[in-house]
């Protein structure tokens, strides 16, 4: 009987012992659980999330800049940034670098520089090259891997390309390394063009594989909107090419060609030489990247005579056949003024003054208005104020207030000296004469396309009447005499069309000394067609050509070619009417 | 209820019958088989587990497939961009002008139009000179 009793008490003791152990173990578990769940919750949760979450950024492509027919002027493509881990690449740096240079090209990546980067001590991450088109970069990275080297990686990015290269570069502008617009339309409409980068966060296994059906958050990427410019790509190319030839042939410092639809103010073409190539980033010096049409001021010379005549015509003080006695020379405030050809006292009509571009005749005519009146008209024509084209860094030019004018100021401003303008201001002012006296602000943007494909048209630009319709018609008739056989620019005439125009050969101001330089000119030609139903206005400016160059002979042919192409491309047929014969002398 | 309560009064019960009715009986030994139930439960659990594994495997496989397809889409998109850039280059005005010049073409010398409705030629026909306004493409 003792045995079973002993056994009984033994098992009971064991049972108690076990119970204590079990209770103890569970108490420890409980306490630990309480610690984890109750006290350190946040830290543990954060660590768990940290370890099991992966984040990726989805770069938003920048919107396109299109021409008026939807052709790409600037667009975004997938690009890659190639990176490396020097701790893995330093041993094979020269061989990896050679493969990369071979595949990407020497324009983008430097051999020795790459070797240095691949060998950077105490580093596990370097950027080798940024902004390489995805198709090129992928080939390069694949080639490195195929050769058996590790440690070269790629990261996705959005890359800006300009399919036209130098085409309209000064108008379109370019972006900096971070993808922000720094010039032209790229800068002015940066907000519309820039999208919002997306990102996605998801749970991954310790080996990096995405866990299906686990928590993930996705911030949607919103691509940038497109900007539709008013440029016609083909006309733009033709003008670029034609202007480049003219600048070279006349050995000018720079040249400009702008064509505007006078009814809407839309700039259909805006060329500049020399220019730059935003696509391969060549010629990026300030001298090339400056947008001369809006940022460069110069003295326009005789083209301004049209504005003087329009002011007089609006006051009823002049008509094409108004007789003017033109002296052989004048000295105003000890300043001698003559015409470009030597003559004694001659009798010209107002049309003759414009056709022959007589400075003295213009001065005589302009004496009919006071400084204040003339200033008021010039101000109305937009000189001294920005053209409203909405491009960055625009200059407003220099026009002294009428109260401060000297006698010499009044005389020289009448024929476009002593007043500084931008080409865009000049285009807007003469555009008013072409448009029957109503001045329309120029514009380079036709509309916007939102990321979802919805198109909104740009607001029509401001317009206001500056001179009467009759005054505009009078000046147009005078300007038609310029392209006649006995005018100053017969080379600008387009057979079959009536063309109104005006030449300009201005004394050039040295920007450093502020004084005129003998023998240096800025030559130009401004004209519009058809003269009896104006549609386009084209302005050509050539700065500092060889000394004998004149507006009619040098800029005139460029005007002829670009205007012809514009009329042809937009289907503007000749009206068929004959230009009225206007007497040039009496 | 009242009918139920009323019945015993009409027929008074006898005490013997009552005591016999409350006799203690031996418990009925239940011979219901447990095996089928256990099998059913195990089968259900087993099937659930296998199903879970299958679903998870399929999802994993699909995840790999999705990753592969997304890579492929990426590669195709890249290829498409490369090709469309090539098309852009071929369509660019400079390339077309270059080719036209090679074929001996020159830009039209003067704009001229043909009115389809009456066949009238509007504008002045001017023959283009052999060396036109564009002689070489530099832009």
TrEMBL record, chain A:
Ubl conjugation recorded as keyword: no
Spell out the GO cellular component terms annotated for this protein, sorted alphabetically and separated by semicolons. Answer: plasma membrane
Indicate the principal place this protein occupies in or around the cell.
Answer: membrane
Ranges of residues in domain Penicillin-binding protein dimerisation: 58-211
Q: Which GO terms describe its molecular function?
A: penicillin binding
Q: Which residues form the Penicillin-binding protein transpeptidase domain?
A: 255-563
Could you list the residue ranges that cross the membrane?
15-34
Sorted alphabetically, the Gene Ontology BP terms of this entry are: cell wall organization
> Which controlled-vocabulary keywords does the entry list?
Membrane, Transmembrane, Transmembrane helix
Q: Which family does it belong to?
A: Belongs to the transpeptidase family.
The protein here is known as: Penicillin-binding protein 2
Q: Which organism is it from?
A: Aeromicrobium terrae
Automatic annotation (TrEMBL), chain B:
Q: Which residues form a coiled coil?
A: 59-86
Superkingdom of the source species: Bacteria
Q: Does the keyword Transmembrane helix apply?
A: yes
Give TM regions.
Answer: 37-59
Q: Which organism is it from?
A: Aeromicrobium terrae
Alphabetic keyword roster = Coiled coil, Membrane, Transmembrane, Transmembrane helix
Q: Is Transmembrane tagged as a keyword?
A: yes
Name by which UniProt lists this protein: Septum formation initiator family protein
